Amino acid sequence: MTRVDTISAFPKHLTLRDGTGVSIRPLEHGDEERLSEFFLGLPDDDRYYLKDDVTSTEVIASWLRDLDYDRALPLVALVDDRVVAEAVLVRRRGNARKHIGDLRIAVKPEFRNRGLGTSLVRELCDIADDAGLERVMFEIVADEESDALKAAEWMGFLRVGTIDAGARDQSGHPHDVILLTMPLGKWYQWTKF
Question: Do 74 and 25 form a contact (C-beta atoms < 8 A)?
Answer without folding.
Answer: no
